[in-house]
Protein backbone atom coordinates (compact mmCIF):
# COMPACT_ATOMS: atom_id res chain seq x y z
CA UNK A 1 0.00 0.00 0.00
CA UNK A 2 1.29 3.42 -1.01
CA UNK A 3 0.02 6.42 0.97
CA UNK A 4 0.58 9.98 -0.27
CA UNK A 5 0.08 13.32 1.47
CA UNK A 6 -0.71 16.19 -0.89
CA UNK A 7 0.51 13.89 -3.70
CA UNK A 8 3.92 13.36 -2.10
CA UNK A 9 5.04 9.97 -0.68
CA UNK A 10 4.00 9.55 2.96
CA UNK A 11 3.92 5.85 3.95
CA UNK A 12 4.57 2.41 2.45
CA UNK A 13 3.03 -0.66 4.05
CA UNK A 14 3.44 -4.21 2.72
CA UNK A 15 2.28 -7.69 3.65
CA UNK A 16 3.32 -11.12 2.42
CA UNK A 17 0.26 -13.07 1.26
CA UNK A 18 -0.27 -16.59 2.51
CA UNK A 19 -2.73 -18.62 0.40
CA UNK A 20 -5.18 -21.27 1.43
CA UNK A 21 -6.30 -22.77 -1.85
CA UNK A 22 -6.74 -19.65 -3.96
CA UNK A 23 -7.52 -17.19 -1.14
CA UNK A 24 -5.09 -14.96 0.81
CA UNK A 25 -6.63 -12.47 3.25
CA UNK A 26 -4.75 -9.26 3.99
CA UNK A 27 -5.07 -6.12 6.12
CA UNK A 28 -3.06 -2.95 5.62
CA UNK A 29 -3.39 0.22 7.71
CA UNK A 30 -1.82 3.64 8.13
CA UNK A 31 -2.71 6.55 10.35
CA UNK A 32 -3.24 10.02 8.86
CA UNK A 33 -3.50 13.33 10.71
CA UNK A 34 -6.58 15.53 11.14
CA UNK A 35 -5.19 18.48 9.23
CA UNK A 36 -5.64 20.54 6.09
CA UNK A 37 -4.00 17.97 3.88
CA UNK A 38 -5.38 15.47 1.36
CA UNK A 39 -4.17 11.89 1.42
CA UNK A 40 -4.25 9.22 -1.26
CA UNK A 41 -4.10 5.43 -1.01
CA UNK A 42 -3.13 2.94 -3.74
CA UNK A 43 -3.03 -0.82 -3.20
CA UNK A 44 -0.85 -2.98 -5.46
CA UNK A 45 -0.38 -6.74 -5.92
CA UNK A 46 3.00 -8.05 -7.05
CA UNK A 47 4.77 -11.37 -7.33
CA UNK A 48 7.92 -11.99 -5.36
CA UNK A 49 10.90 -11.15 -7.53
CA UNK A 50 8.72 -9.59 -10.24
CA UNK A 51 9.55 -6.19 -11.68
CA UNK A 52 5.92 -5.11 -12.17
CA UNK A 53 2.74 -4.88 -10.09
CA UNK A 54 -1.03 -4.59 -10.53
CA UNK A 55 -3.02 -1.63 -9.14
CA UNK A 56 -6.14 -3.06 -7.48
CA UNK A 57 -7.48 -0.02 -5.53
CA UNK A 58 -7.06 3.76 -5.77
CA UNK A 59 -8.69 6.23 -3.38
CA UNK A 60 -7.77 9.93 -3.37
CA UNK A 61 -8.70 13.18 -1.60
CA UNK A 62 -8.97 11.49 1.79
CA UNK A 63 -9.06 13.65 4.92
CA UNK A 64 -9.45 13.02 8.65
CA UNK A 65 -11.51 15.31 10.88
CA UNK A 66 -14.55 15.85 13.08
CA UNK A 67 -18.19 14.99 12.39
CA UNK A 68 -21.30 17.06 13.18
CA UNK A 69 -24.99 16.33 12.60
CA UNK A 70 -27.68 18.97 12.02
CA UNK A 71 -31.40 18.32 12.33
CA UNK A 72 -34.63 20.28 12.57
CA UNK A 73 -36.69 22.21 10.05
CA UNK A 74 -35.94 25.01 7.59
CA UNK A 75 -33.87 27.16 9.97
CA UNK A 76 -31.68 24.12 10.54
CA UNK A 77 -31.41 23.59 6.77
CA UNK A 78 -30.62 27.34 6.36
CA UNK A 79 -30.17 26.83 2.61
CA UNK A 80 -29.56 30.08 0.72
CA UNK A 81 -28.73 29.77 -3.01
CA UNK A 82 -26.82 33.08 -2.89
CA UNK A 83 -24.42 31.69 -0.29
CA UNK A 84 -21.59 30.19 -2.33
CA UNK A 85 -18.74 29.59 0.11
CA UNK A 86 -17.00 26.24 -0.36
CA UNK A 87 -13.97 24.62 1.18
CA UNK A 88 -12.40 21.33 0.14
CA UNK A 89 -12.10 20.45 3.83
CA UNK A 90 -15.84 20.82 4.56
CA UNK A 91 -17.39 17.55 3.42
CA UNK A 92 -20.63 15.61 3.57
CA UNK A 93 -21.75 12.11 2.69
CA UNK A 94 -24.98 11.15 0.94
CA UNK A 95 -27.55 13.74 -0.08
CA UNK A 96 -30.26 16.11 1.11
CA UNK A 97 -33.18 14.91 -1.03
CA UNK A 98 -35.62 16.97 -3.08
CA UNK A 99 -38.75 18.53 -1.61
CA UNK A 100 -36.71 19.81 1.38
CA UNK A 101 -35.55 16.32 2.27
CA UNK A 102 -38.99 14.69 2.20
CA UNK A 103 -38.49 12.72 -1.03
CA UNK A 104 -37.49 9.06 -0.91
CA UNK A 105 -33.82 8.34 -0.32
CA UNK A 106 -31.97 6.33 -2.94
CA UNK A 107 -29.80 3.76 -1.10
CA UNK A 108 -27.17 4.19 -3.82
CA UNK A 109 -26.49 7.78 -2.70
CA UNK A 110 -23.47 7.10 -0.49
CA UNK A 111 -20.75 9.20 -2.09
CA UNK A 112 -18.66 11.79 -0.30
CA UNK A 113 -18.38 15.32 -1.61
CA UNK A 114 -17.68 18.93 -0.63
CA UNK A 115 -20.54 20.77 1.05
CA UNK A 116 -22.41 23.44 -0.81
CA UNK A 117 -22.10 22.44 -4.46
CA UNK A 118 -25.89 22.06 -4.68
CA UNK A 119 -28.88 21.85 -2.36
CA UNK A 120 -28.23 18.09 -2.29
CA UNK A 121 -24.91 18.56 -0.48
CA UNK A 122 -25.67 21.73 1.47
CA UNK A 123 -24.70 21.93 5.12
CA UNK A 124 -26.69 25.19 5.35
CA UNK A 125 -25.26 28.63 5.92
CA UNK A 126 -24.73 28.47 9.68
CA UNK A 127 -23.53 24.85 9.54
CA UNK A 128 -20.95 25.82 6.92
CA UNK A 129 -19.93 28.96 8.83
CA UNK A 130 -19.41 26.87 11.95
CA UNK A 131 -17.23 24.46 9.96
CA UNK A 132 -15.34 27.30 8.28
CA UNK A 133 -14.36 28.88 11.59
CA UNK A 134 -13.37 25.52 13.07
CA UNK A 135 -11.11 24.84 10.10
CA UNK A 136 -9.58 28.32 10.09
CA UNK A 137 -8.95 28.25 13.85
CA UNK A 138 -7.94 24.64 14.47
CA UNK A 139 -6.99 23.35 11.01
CA UNK A 140 -9.24 20.30 11.34
CA UNK A 141 -11.41 19.16 8.39
CA UNK A 142 -15.11 18.99 9.19
CA UNK A 143 -17.90 16.69 8.02
CA UNK A 144 -21.41 18.15 8.28
CA UNK A 145 -24.46 15.98 7.62
CA UNK A 146 -27.60 18.09 7.47
CA UNK A 147 -30.67 15.89 7.89
CA UNK A 148 -33.26 18.58 8.54
CA UNK A 149 -36.59 18.79 6.70
CA UNK A 150 -38.31 22.05 5.78
CA UNK A 151 -41.41 22.71 7.90
CA UNK A 152 -41.04 19.39 9.74
CA UNK A 153 -42.77 18.83 13.04
CA UNK A 154 -40.82 17.27 15.88
CA UNK A 155 -43.19 14.29 15.56
CA UNK A 156 -41.96 13.76 11.99
CA UNK A 157 -38.34 13.99 13.09
CA UNK A 158 -38.59 11.71 16.12
CA UNK A 159 -39.89 8.59 14.35
CA UNK A 160 -37.45 5.72 14.81
CA UNK A 161 -38.07 2.19 13.59
CA UNK A 162 -36.67 0.09 16.44
CA UNK A 163 -36.59 -3.00 14.20
CA UNK A 164 -34.66 -1.11 11.51
CA UNK A 165 -33.16 2.19 12.75
CA UNK A 166 -31.85 2.91 9.22
CA UNK A 167 -35.37 2.78 7.78
CA UNK A 168 -35.15 5.16 4.81
CA UNK A 169 -38.84 6.07 5.10
CA UNK A 170 -38.03 7.98 8.31
CA UNK A 171 -36.04 11.19 8.69
CA UNK A 172 -34.04 9.66 11.54
CA UNK A 173 -33.27 6.59 9.44
CA UNK A 174 -32.06 8.67 6.47
CA UNK A 175 -29.47 10.47 8.60
CA UNK A 176 -28.36 7.28 10.34
CA UNK A 177 -27.97 5.60 6.95
CA UNK A 178 -25.71 8.40 5.71
CA UNK A 179 -23.62 8.25 8.90
CA UNK A 180 -23.29 4.48 8.69
CA UNK A 181 -22.45 4.35 4.97
CA UNK A 182 -19.85 7.06 5.51
CA UNK A 183 -18.12 4.86 8.10
CA UNK A 184 -18.84 7.42 10.81
CA UNK A 185 -20.66 5.33 13.41
CA UNK A 186 -19.09 6.06 16.78
CA UNK A 187 -17.33 9.17 15.47
CA UNK A 188 -20.02 11.90 15.73
CA UNK A 189 -18.81 14.76 17.92
CA UNK A 190 -22.04 16.76 18.41
CA UNK A 191 -25.69 16.95 17.34
CA UNK A 192 -27.50 20.24 16.62
CA UNK A 193 -31.30 20.54 16.74
CA UNK A 194 -33.14 23.67 15.57
CA UNK A 195 -36.89 23.23 15.36
CA UNK A 196 -40.20 24.37 16.82
CA UNK A 197 -41.62 26.91 14.38
CA UNK A 198 -44.02 24.21 13.12
CA UNK A 199 -45.56 23.76 16.57
CA UNK A 200 -46.43 27.43 17.06
CA UNK A 201 -49.43 26.86 14.78
CA UNK A 202 -51.10 24.41 17.15
CA UNK A 203 -49.06 21.61 18.72
CA UNK A 204 -46.76 23.50 21.07
CA UNK A 205 -48.05 21.78 24.27
CA UNK A 206 -46.81 18.41 23.00
CA UNK A 207 -43.37 19.67 21.99
CA UNK A 208 -41.50 18.78 25.22
CA UNK A 209 -42.74 15.17 25.17
CA UNK A 210 -41.95 14.76 21.49
CA UNK A 211 -38.54 16.35 21.89
CA UNK A 212 -37.68 13.96 24.73
CA UNK A 213 -38.45 11.07 22.39
CA UNK A 214 -36.13 12.52 19.72
CA UNK A 215 -33.42 13.12 22.31
CA UNK A 216 -33.60 9.50 23.43
CA UNK A 217 -33.35 8.33 19.80
CA UNK A 218 -30.16 10.36 19.41
CA UNK A 219 -28.79 8.79 22.59
CA UNK A 220 -29.55 5.31 21.25
CA UNK A 221 -27.87 5.69 17.87
CA UNK A 222 -25.15 8.26 18.66
CA UNK A 223 -24.09 7.47 22.23
CA UNK A 224 -20.65 8.91 21.53
CA UNK A 225 -21.71 12.56 21.10
CA UNK A 226 -20.08 15.03 23.48
CA UNK A 227 -22.76 17.72 23.19
CA UNK A 228 -26.35 18.15 22.03
CA UNK A 229 -26.88 21.80 20.97
CA UNK A 230 -30.50 22.98 21.13
CA UNK A 231 -31.85 26.27 19.75
CA UNK A 232 -34.60 28.30 21.38
CA UNK A 233 -36.69 29.63 18.49
CA UNK A 234 -37.56 33.27 17.86
CA UNK A 235 -40.98 34.96 18.27
CA UNK A 236 -43.54 34.16 15.57
CA UNK A 237 -47.04 35.54 15.02
CA UNK A 238 -50.10 33.74 16.32
CA UNK A 239 -52.45 33.39 19.27
CA UNK A 240 -51.13 30.41 21.22
CA UNK A 241 -49.87 31.02 24.74
CA UNK A 242 -48.31 27.54 24.67
CA UNK A 243 -45.64 28.85 22.27
CA UNK A 244 -44.06 30.67 25.23
CA UNK A 245 -44.06 27.50 27.35
CA UNK A 246 -42.43 25.58 24.48
CA UNK A 247 -39.68 28.19 24.16
CA UNK A 248 -39.22 28.07 27.93
CA UNK A 249 -38.67 24.32 27.75
CA UNK A 250 -36.05 24.85 25.06
CA UNK A 251 -34.33 27.22 27.51
CA UNK A 252 -34.58 24.82 30.47
CA UNK A 253 -33.53 21.67 28.59
CA UNK A 254 -29.87 22.26 29.50
CA UNK A 255 -30.76 22.03 33.20
CA UNK A 256 -32.67 18.78 32.58
CA UNK A 257 -30.01 17.04 30.47
CA UNK A 258 -26.33 17.84 31.19
CA UNK A 259 -25.42 16.95 27.60
CA UNK A 260 -27.61 19.75 26.20
CA UNK A 261 -26.37 23.31 25.63
CA UNK A 262 -29.14 25.71 24.59
CA UNK A 263 -28.78 28.85 22.48
CA UNK A 264 -31.28 31.71 22.01
CA UNK A 265 -32.00 32.98 18.49
CA UNK A 266 -34.02 36.06 19.47
CA UNK A 267 -32.12 39.17 18.40
CA UNK A 268 -30.47 37.48 15.40
CA UNK A 269 -30.15 39.94 12.51
CA UNK A 270 -31.88 39.51 9.15
CA UNK A 271 -35.09 38.03 10.60
CA UNK A 272 -38.15 38.02 8.32
CA UNK A 273 -40.61 36.62 10.85
CA UNK A 274 -39.69 32.95 10.22
CA UNK A 275 -36.31 32.72 8.48
CA UNK A 276 -33.11 34.74 8.26
CA UNK A 277 -30.96 36.15 5.49
CA UNK A 278 -27.39 35.02 4.86
CA UNK A 279 -26.00 37.54 7.37
CA UNK A 280 -28.36 36.28 10.08
CA UNK A 281 -27.47 32.64 9.58
CA UNK A 282 -23.77 33.56 9.42
CA UNK A 283 -24.15 35.37 12.75
CA UNK A 284 -25.57 32.17 14.26
CA UNK A 285 -22.63 30.18 12.89
CA UNK A 286 -20.16 32.60 14.47
CA UNK A 287 -21.96 32.51 17.83
CA UNK A 288 -22.23 28.73 17.89
CA UNK A 289 -18.57 28.40 16.91
CA UNK A 290 -17.47 30.11 20.13
CA UNK A 291 -19.54 27.70 22.23
CA UNK A 292 -18.33 24.62 20.34
CA UNK A 293 -14.74 25.88 20.54
CA UNK A 294 -15.10 26.20 24.31
CA UNK A 295 -16.82 22.85 24.81
CA UNK A 296 -14.86 20.64 22.42
CA UNK A 297 -11.57 22.36 21.55
CA UNK A 298 -10.48 24.02 24.80
CA UNK A 299 -10.92 27.64 23.71
CA UNK A 300 -10.24 30.20 26.43
CA UNK A 301 -12.59 32.76 24.84
CA UNK A 302 -15.41 31.95 27.25
CA UNK A 303 -16.68 35.28 28.61
CA UNK A 304 -20.32 35.99 27.67
CA UNK A 305 -20.39 33.62 24.70
CA UNK A 306 -23.68 32.01 25.78
CA UNK A 307 -27.19 33.47 25.86
CA UNK A 308 -27.99 35.03 29.26
CA UNK A 309 -30.25 32.63 31.15
CA UNK A 310 -32.42 33.63 34.11
CA UNK A 311 -31.36 31.91 37.34
CA UNK A 312 -33.65 33.38 40.01
CA UNK A 313 -36.25 36.10 40.40
CA UNK A 314 -37.28 37.66 43.72
CA UNK A 315 -38.76 40.76 45.32
CA UNK A 316 -35.89 42.88 46.56
CA UNK A 317 -37.43 44.06 49.84
CA UNK A 318 -40.52 43.49 51.94
CA UNK A 319 -42.09 46.56 50.26
CA UNK A 320 -42.32 44.46 47.06
CA UNK A 321 -41.86 47.50 44.84
CA UNK A 322 -38.80 46.10 43.04
CA UNK A 323 -37.96 42.75 41.48
CA UNK A 324 -34.42 41.47 40.99
CA UNK A 325 -33.84 39.25 37.95
CA UNK A 326 -30.54 37.39 38.14
CA UNK A 327 -28.88 35.83 35.12
CA UNK A 328 -25.87 33.51 35.09
CA UNK A 329 -22.79 34.97 36.74
CA UNK A 330 -20.28 36.50 34.38
CA UNK A 331 -22.96 38.00 32.16
CA UNK A 332 -23.02 41.77 31.79
CA UNK A 333 -26.57 42.67 30.82
CA UNK A 334 -27.43 45.79 28.83
CA UNK A 335 -30.76 47.55 29.48
CA UNK A 336 -31.73 48.83 26.00
CA UNK A 337 -33.18 52.10 24.80
CA UNK A 338 -36.69 52.26 23.38
CA UNK A 339 -37.22 51.16 19.77
CA UNK A 340 -39.33 53.20 17.32
CA UNK A 341 -40.50 51.45 14.16
CA UNK A 342 -43.41 51.54 11.73
CA UNK A 343 -46.33 49.26 12.47
CA UNK A 344 -48.00 47.09 9.83
CA UNK A 345 -50.09 50.06 8.71
CA UNK A 346 -47.18 52.49 8.38
CA UNK A 347 -47.74 54.37 11.63
CA UNK A 348 -44.77 55.05 13.93
CA UNK A 349 -44.85 53.01 17.11
CA UNK A 350 -42.45 52.92 20.05
CA UNK A 351 -41.74 49.73 21.96
CA UNK A 352 -40.26 49.71 25.44
CA UNK A 353 -38.60 46.73 27.06
CA UNK A 354 -41.02 47.08 29.97
CA UNK A 355 -43.81 45.97 27.58
CA UNK A 356 -42.20 42.54 27.32
CA UNK A 357 -41.91 41.98 31.09
CA UNK A 358 -45.17 40.43 32.27
CA UNK A 359 -46.32 39.88 35.86
CA UNK A 360 -48.73 36.93 36.06
CA UNK A 361 -48.87 37.08 32.23
CA UNK A 362 -50.01 40.72 32.18
CA UNK A 363 -47.99 43.76 31.01
CA UNK A 364 -48.09 47.22 32.50
CA UNK A 365 -46.76 46.77 36.05
CA UNK A 366 -43.05 47.19 35.26
CA UNK A 367 -42.20 50.88 35.01
CA UNK A 368 -38.43 50.83 34.49
CA UNK A 369 -35.33 48.69 34.76
CA UNK A 370 -31.64 48.98 35.49
CA UNK A 371 -28.87 46.49 34.72
CA UNK A 372 -25.88 45.93 36.99
CA UNK A 373 -23.64 43.11 35.81
CA UNK A 374 -25.72 39.96 35.67
CA UNK A 375 -28.58 41.48 37.71
CA UNK A 376 -31.52 43.50 36.46
CA UNK A 377 -33.65 45.43 38.95
CA UNK A 378 -37.23 46.21 37.87
CA UNK A 379 -39.15 49.12 39.36
CA UNK A 380 -42.86 48.36 39.79
CA UNK A 381 -46.06 50.36 39.95
CA UNK A 382 -46.47 50.19 43.73
CA UNK A 383 -46.38 47.18 46.02
CA UNK A 384 -47.16 44.02 44.05
CA UNK A 385 -48.44 40.56 44.89
CA UNK A 386 -47.88 38.74 41.57
CA UNK A 387 -46.17 35.36 41.69
CA UNK A 388 -44.79 34.85 38.14
CA UNK A 389 -42.56 36.83 35.78
CA UNK A 390 -42.23 36.38 32.02
CA UNK A 391 -39.89 37.97 29.49
CA UNK A 392 -41.22 38.31 25.92
CA UNK A 393 -44.82 37.57 24.90
CA UNK A 394 -45.92 34.17 23.56
CA UNK A 395 -46.32 35.52 20.01
CA UNK A 396 -45.61 38.65 17.97
CA UNK A 397 -47.36 40.53 16.47
CA UNK A 398 -50.72 40.25 18.19
CA UNK A 399 -53.45 39.41 15.70
CA UNK A 400 -57.11 40.28 15.40
CA UNK A 401 -59.84 37.68 14.81
CA UNK A 402 -59.07 37.68 11.07
CA UNK A 403 -55.38 36.97 11.58
CA UNK A 404 -54.25 40.54 10.82
CA UNK A 405 -51.69 42.36 13.02
CA UNK A 406 -53.25 44.81 15.46
CA UNK A 407 -52.27 48.50 15.16
CA UNK A 408 -49.16 49.46 17.11
CA UNK A 409 -47.25 46.30 16.24
CA UNK A 410 -44.60 45.84 13.56
CA UNK A 411 -44.84 42.89 11.20
CA UNK A 412 -41.67 41.38 12.69
CA UNK A 413 -40.60 41.57 16.32
CA UNK A 414 -38.21 44.56 16.57
CA UNK A 415 -37.32 44.41 20.28
CA UNK A 416 -35.99 46.07 22.34
CA UNK A 417 -34.26 43.12 23.95
CA UNK A 418 -32.07 42.22 26.87
CA UNK A 419 -28.60 41.39 25.56
CA UNK A 420 -25.15 40.95 27.02
CA UNK A 421 -22.11 43.05 26.14
CA UNK A 422 -21.21 40.71 23.26
CA UNK A 423 -24.62 41.11 21.68
CA UNK A 424 -26.21 37.77 22.54
CA UNK A 425 -29.91 38.00 23.28
CA UNK A 426 -31.16 36.62 26.58
CA UNK A 427 -33.40 33.55 26.53
CA UNK A 428 -37.09 34.36 26.67
CA UNK A 429 -38.70 32.83 29.76
CA UNK A 430 -42.25 32.18 30.87
CA UNK A 431 -43.93 31.98 34.27
CA UNK A 432 -40.74 31.95 36.31
CA UNK A 433 -41.66 32.11 40.04
CA UNK A 434 -41.09 35.41 41.82
CA UNK A 435 -39.68 34.42 45.18
CA UNK A 436 -40.21 36.22 48.47
CA UNK A 437 -37.58 38.73 49.63
CA UNK A 438 -34.92 37.72 52.13
CA UNK A 439 -34.44 39.60 55.37
CA UNK A 440 -31.87 42.43 55.20
CA UNK A 441 -28.18 41.68 55.60
CA UNK A 442 -27.00 43.78 58.55
CA UNK A 443 -23.87 45.48 59.87
CA UNK A 444 -21.64 45.03 56.82
CA UNK A 445 -18.53 47.07 57.63
CA UNK A 446 -15.24 47.62 55.79
CA UNK A 447 -12.17 48.60 57.85
CA UNK A 448 -8.70 49.47 56.55
CA UNK A 449 -5.91 47.42 58.12
CA UNK A 450 -3.12 48.78 55.90
CA UNK A 451 -2.61 50.26 52.46
CA UNK A 452 -3.01 46.72 51.18
CA UNK A 453 -5.53 45.06 53.50
CA UNK A 454 -9.23 45.58 54.25
CA UNK A 455 -11.23 43.68 56.87
CA UNK A 456 -14.90 43.00 56.12
CA UNK A 457 -17.27 42.07 58.95
CA UNK A 458 -21.03 41.49 59.16
CA UNK A 459 -23.75 39.95 61.27
CA UNK A 460 -24.55 36.38 60.25
CA UNK A 461 -27.77 36.18 58.26
CA UNK A 462 -30.43 33.88 59.65
CA UNK A 463 -31.22 31.90 56.47
CA UNK A 464 -28.24 32.03 54.10
CA UNK A 465 -26.83 28.93 52.44
CA UNK A 466 -23.58 30.71 51.52
CA UNK A 467 -22.10 34.17 51.04
CA UNK A 468 -20.56 35.69 47.93
CA UNK A 469 -18.27 38.68 48.41
CA UNK A 470 -17.74 40.95 45.41
CA UNK A 471 -15.36 43.85 44.95
CA UNK A 472 -15.15 46.89 42.71
CA UNK A 473 -11.75 48.58 42.63
CA UNK A 474 -11.15 52.16 41.46
CA UNK A 475 -10.25 50.97 37.97
CA UNK A 476 -13.18 48.54 37.64
CA UNK A 477 -16.41 49.29 35.78
CA UNK A 478 -18.38 46.65 37.67
CA UNK A 479 -18.18 44.18 40.54
CA UNK A 480 -16.23 40.94 40.25
CA UNK A 481 -16.42 37.96 42.59
CA UNK A 482 -13.75 37.96 45.27
CA UNK A 483 -14.66 34.82 47.22
CA UNK A 484 -17.51 32.48 48.13
CA UNK A 485 -17.82 31.79 51.83
CA UNK A 486 -19.75 29.08 53.71
CA UNK A 487 -22.87 29.69 55.79
CA UNK A 488 -22.07 31.12 59.20
CA UNK A 489 -19.13 33.25 58.03
CA UNK A 490 -18.93 36.73 59.55
CA UNK A 491 -15.53 38.06 58.45
CA UNK A 492 -13.03 38.15 55.59
CA UNK A 493 -9.75 40.01 55.04
CA UNK A 494 -8.94 41.26 51.54
CA UNK A 495 -5.14 41.30 51.41
CA UNK A 496 -4.92 42.39 47.78
CA UNK A 497 -6.03 46.00 47.83
CA UNK A 498 -3.31 47.08 45.44
CA UNK A 499 -4.17 50.61 44.29
CA UNK A 500 -5.29 53.91 45.72
CA UNK A 501 -8.89 55.10 45.73
CA UNK A 502 -12.33 53.88 46.73
CA UNK A 503 -12.84 50.13 47.13
CA UNK A 504 -16.50 49.08 47.19
CA UNK A 505 -17.51 45.65 48.47
CA UNK A 506 -20.85 43.93 47.99
CA UNK A 507 -21.83 41.01 50.18
CA UNK A 508 -24.57 38.66 49.04
CA UNK A 509 -26.33 36.23 51.36
CA UNK A 510 -27.40 33.41 49.05
CA UNK A 511 -30.22 30.88 48.94
CA UNK A 512 -31.48 28.90 45.96
CA UNK A 513 -34.44 31.27 45.62
CA UNK A 514 -33.27 34.76 46.55
CA UNK A 515 -30.45 36.95 47.80
CA UNK A 516 -29.93 39.76 50.27
CA UNK A 517 -27.18 42.28 49.59
CA UNK A 518 -25.28 44.97 51.43
CA UNK A 519 -22.56 47.39 50.33
CA UNK A 520 -19.57 48.87 52.13
CA UNK A 521 -16.79 51.16 50.90
CA UNK A 522 -13.37 52.30 52.05
CA UNK A 523 -10.76 54.63 50.59
CA UNK A 524 -7.27 53.18 50.31
CA UNK A 525 -4.69 55.92 50.94
CA UNK A 526 -1.60 55.49 48.84
CA UNK A 527 -0.41 59.04 49.32
CA UNK A 528 3.25 59.94 49.37
CA UNK A 529 4.79 58.77 52.63
CA UNK A 530 2.92 55.49 52.85
CA UNK A 531 4.64 52.12 52.78
CA UNK A 532 4.71 50.72 49.26
CA UNK A 533 4.90 46.92 49.02
CA UNK A 534 5.94 44.97 45.93
CA UNK A 535 3.00 42.95 44.61
CA UNK A 536 5.00 41.14 41.93
CA UNK A 537 8.55 40.71 40.68
CA UNK A 538 9.58 43.33 38.17
CA UNK A 539 11.51 46.51 37.49
CA UNK A 540 11.68 49.17 40.21
CA UNK A 541 10.36 51.80 37.77
CA UNK A 542 7.37 49.73 36.64
CA UNK A 543 4.17 50.92 38.35
CA UNK A 544 2.71 47.39 38.27
CA UNK A 545 5.50 46.24 40.60
CA UNK A 546 4.08 48.29 43.48
CA UNK A 547 0.81 47.94 45.34
CA UNK A 548 -0.41 51.51 44.88
CA UNK A 549 0.32 51.61 41.18
CA UNK A 550 3.08 54.19 41.32
CA UNK A 551 6.89 54.30 41.48
CA UNK A 552 8.37 54.99 44.95
CA UNK A 553 9.87 58.39 45.69
CA UNK A 554 12.25 59.72 48.35
CA UNK A 555 9.23 60.23 50.67
CA UNK A 556 8.15 56.58 50.57
CA UNK A 557 8.93 53.63 52.76
CA UNK A 558 9.25 50.50 50.59
CA UNK A 559 9.03 46.81 51.37
CA UNK A 560 10.02 44.05 48.94
CA UNK A 561 7.74 41.16 49.81
CA UNK A 562 8.73 37.54 50.37
CA UNK A 563 9.30 35.70 47.11
CA UNK A 564 9.44 38.91 45.02
CA UNK A 565 12.50 40.19 43.14
CA UNK A 566 12.72 43.89 42.24
CA UNK A 567 15.40 44.94 39.74
CA UNK A 568 16.83 48.47 39.87
CA UNK A 569 18.55 49.87 36.75
CA UNK A 570 18.55 53.62 37.54
CA UNK A 571 19.16 56.12 40.34
CA UNK A 572 16.43 56.06 43.02
CA UNK A 573 15.88 57.39 46.55
CA UNK A 574 13.50 56.19 49.27
CA UNK A 575 12.84 56.99 52.91
CA UNK A 576 13.36 53.42 54.13
CA UNK A 577 13.84 49.90 52.75
CA UNK A 578 12.66 46.60 54.19
CA UNK A 579 13.92 43.48 52.45
CA UNK A 580 11.73 40.40 52.91
CA UNK A 581 12.43 39.48 49.28
CA UNK A 582 15.28 40.34 46.87
CA UNK A 583 16.58 43.66 45.49
CA UNK A 584 18.71 43.10 42.41
CA UNK A 585 20.94 45.82 40.93
CA UNK A 586 21.27 45.97 37.16
CA UNK A 587 23.49 48.29 35.07
CA UNK A 588 23.09 51.85 36.35
CA UNK A 589 21.21 50.77 39.45
CA UNK A 590 21.83 52.84 42.60
CA UNK A 591 19.48 53.19 45.61
CA UNK A 592 19.84 55.87 48.27
CA UNK A 593 18.01 55.48 51.59
CA UNK A 594 17.29 58.95 53.00
CA UNK A 595 15.62 58.81 56.44
CA UNK A 596 13.35 61.76 57.25
Overall 3D shape: flat
Low-confidence stretches: none
Query: How large a portion of the residues is in β-strands, by DSSP E?
Result: 25-35%
Task: Summarize the main sheet.
Answer: 7 strands, mixed
Report how far the terminal alpha carbons are from each other: 85 Å
Q: Which percent bin holds the helix content? A: 10-25%
How many strands appear in the DSSP assignment?
A: 37
Alpha-beta content class: alpha/beta
Please compute the radius of gyration using only Cα atoms: 31 Å
Q: How many alpha or pi helices? A: 8
In round numbers, the mean pLDDT is: 93
Question: In which order are the strands of the major sheet placed?
Answer: 7-6-8-5-9-10-11
Please give a structural write-up.
The protein has 596 residues and is α/β, with parallel strands linked by helices. Helix content is 15%, strand content 31%. The protein is built from 8 helices and 37 strands. It has a 7-stranded mixed sheet with strand order 7-6-8-5-9-10-11, sandwiched between helices. It has a 4-stranded antiparallel sheet with strand order 2-1-3-4, with no helix packed on it. Helix 7 (242-256) links the parallel strand 10 and strand 11 (260-264). Helix 3 crosses helix 8. It is flat and about 100 Å long.
